[in-house]
Design goal:
alpha+beta, seven-stranded mixed sheet, 13 strands, about 45% helix
Length: about 600
């Protein structure tokens, strides 16, 4: 039986016991287990192979439902078709992630990033379609681009379909664990089980009623199994299984082969598990010769955290032939973190040049914020009062509004070159908003989403400059607009449309030019002939000012990294834009301003005209 009581579950159950005591590998099922006869081996023949494979895995149902269409569309990388299978208010819960993906838009973003990360295929091994209940259970595994099966990648996904539209309404997806700790958990449970039962003996009388199968409505085989197990009647449970059955509780390193191994295992579990632990069926997808089950575990009628799971059964001649059990991970839902590191490593593998901004970012964070002796002044963990006052005064003089209007609160003691550097840096950071078309979610057919969205990156650059720019350059998805095609304005999100205006780049160019003029001539009575000398003297003790200079150098080095993809989505060949392209890449700030003003505009869609 499922020993899915991971260490967190144990800790939840053991808390009262601790007080009481203190006071007195991963094997796979044989290939015969899977109904899939063919796997995707050659990516070049993927379309035909996937078509045949999905057809072979349909449970005697000629019309594909939204789940089967989703799998086929995903493998063909037809993301629009795949996402269209979800209802607008659908929920997709991947048990390895800390929170569900709520709504079609959130689900679209999730799968867009997955598609950008790799060419992995979701290969259906079996599917249970329950038309009466509008339920579908899919048993599948993940294959890499080269056709090799990804280790520990078997999933069971339980789908609920919308009764009216047939679209996917909810999904609960589990995957087999990498850590096969079932045997260890059994030993721990065997030790603590007696304390759990002893601590509830006085009030357990209310929990003694068991389900009487004979008086109940007709139960499906998994329900009978759960009921027999909850009554700890292992003979009744074993009668449901074929003598050559295969039972794979994926928290254990090896599946159980045959009725004898299953019997021995169940007897061990019976001795280890407290009698108050009950397995509760939440939902079933009855496909006839295969069934999917969604379940959870309760202790004394209370649902235990992190004990939800999925099971997939195959039936032959009225007996259970195979079972696979999967349980949600406990406490640490590492799916998002694992995906992030896979995403980064894949991006660097695809474009090794990305290691440059990654390395520069790591050095920047250490040198600017944490180092002592490399840059002058105190590090970020021990900033001086003078530093906070300087940051405040520079912020008040943002874009020179306060001093130009002669506002009474405008600081007059800040060095004008430092003010010029500060405002040049912020206008330069804002200029990157001219590349907002690098992140698109409005039009499904031209969708290009980034794991680190660009709007937060540009906003963050107004505060921490290179600390946000460099990660964006590492994490952004590559422009995939086919050669010869180009986007139109309707493909862009609203903020990107606004920053496409020539006035936007022109205004920021004027601020940058004004910053140079201000730094050169402002406050002449105070900073005369020694203006430059006094500035460098200030930089010898000023951590904030010296970090601004580092940011200017980084911006100059990386301002052109987005230009080629920007030209590509405009349908412009790079060789046709040699001079303007080179200015954008190699002339600091003003070259980028010129590019933003002179670059080809996106066409206006005929419908919008």
């Amino acid at each position: 039986m499922r020993v899915i009581f991971c260490l967190y579950v144990l800790s939840v159950s053991i808390k009262p016991i601790v007080a009481f005591v203190s006071t007195s590998g991963s094997s796979r099922l044989p290939k015969s287990f899977c109904k899939v006869k063919e796997s995707l081996v050659l990516q070049q023949a993927a379309a035909l192979t996937r078509e045949e494979e999905l057809d072979n895995n349909t449970s005697k149902n000629n019309n594909k439902n939204s789940v089967e269409v989703f799998f086929k569309a995903w493998n063909d990388r037809k993301l629009v078709t795949a996402i269209d299978q979800f209802a607008i208010d659908a929920t997709f819960e991947d048990a390895s992630y800390p929170t569900p993906f709520e709504g079609k838009e959130d689900i679209n973003r999730h799968f867009s990033l997955l598609a950008d990360n790799s060419l992995q295929l979701f290969v259906l091994d079996d599917i249970a379609i329950d038309e009466a209940r509008n339920k579908v259970a899919a048993f599948y595994h993940v294959e890499e681009e080269d056709g090799k099966t990804k280790s520990n990648s078997r999933h069971i996904a339980f789908f609920t379909l919308n009764e009216s539209t047939g679209q996917i309404q909810t999904v609960y997806d589990t995957v087999e664990p990498v850590n096969k700790a079932g045997e260890v958990n059994l030993k721990i449970l065997s030790f603590v089980g007696k304390y759990i039962e002893k601590s509830v003996e006085e009030e357990s009388s209310k929990n003694t009623e068991k389900l009487d199968v004979s008086s109940s409505k007709q139960l499906l085989i998994p329900e009978k199994f759960f009921d027999a197990y909850n009554r700890r009647n292992m003979d009744d449970a074993l009668q449901l299984f074929d003598k050559d059955c295969i039972y794979d509780d994926t928290v254990f390193p090896n599946p159980l082969n045959g009725i004898t191994q299953l019997k021995n295992h169940m007897e061990v579990c019976e001795r280890a598990l407290p009698s108050t632990f009950q397995f509760i069926v939440d939902d079933i997808a009855d496909g006839g010769d295969c069934l999917g089950v969604r379940w959870h575990v309760e202790n004394q009628g209370q649902e235990m955290k992190f004990t939800r799971g999925n099971s997939f059964y195959t039936i032959d001649n009225g007996l259970v032939k195979t079972v696979v059990d999967e349980i949600e991970p406990a406490v640490l839902k590492k799916g998002g973190v694992q995906f992030f590191f896979e995403y980064v490593s894949n991006k660097i593998r695809e474009e090794p040049a990305r290691i440059v901004p990654l390395t520069v970012w790591a050095l920047y964070m250490y040198i600017v914020f944490f180092s002592d002796g490399i840059l002058p002044g105190a590090n970020a963990l021990q900033l001086e009062q003078r530093t906070w006052e300087e940051v405040r005064d520079l912020s008040i003089n943002f874009f020179f509004v306060s001093p130009l209007l002669n506002l009474p609160f405008a600081p007059t003691t800040v060095h004008p070159i430092l003010e010029g550097v500060f405002n040049l840096l912020l206008s330069w950071a804002a200029l990157f908003a001219g590349f907002l078309s690098d992140d698109r979610s409005k039009n499904d057919t031209t969708n290009k989403q980034n794991i680190f969205p660009m709007i937060p990156a540009v906003v963050g650059m107004q505060f921490l400059t290179s600390a946000f720019l460099l990660p964006y350059l590492v994490l952004r998805s590559t422009e995939k607009t086919p050669e010869g095609e180009k986007l139109t304005l309707k493909d862009l999100d609203t903020p990107a449309r606004l920053t496409e205006s020539k006035l936007f780049a022109s205004a920021l160019g004027l601020v940058g030019l004004g910053s140079v003029v201000w730094g050169s001539f402002a406050r002449a009575s105070t900073y005369g002939s020694d203006r430059i000398e006094s500035f460098w003297k200030l930089m010898s003790i000023d951590r904030v000012g010296s970090s601004f200079l580092v940011d200017l150098a980084i911006f100059a080095a990386f301002q052109g990294w987005l230009v080629d993809d920007d030209l590509k989505r405009r349908g412009v060949k790079i060789e046709n834009m040699g001079g303007l392209r080179n200015a954008a890449k190699f002339v600091p700030f003003f070259g980028l301003v010129a590019y933003m003003i002179l670059r080809p505009s996106f066409d206006v869609d005929e419908q919008e005209k």
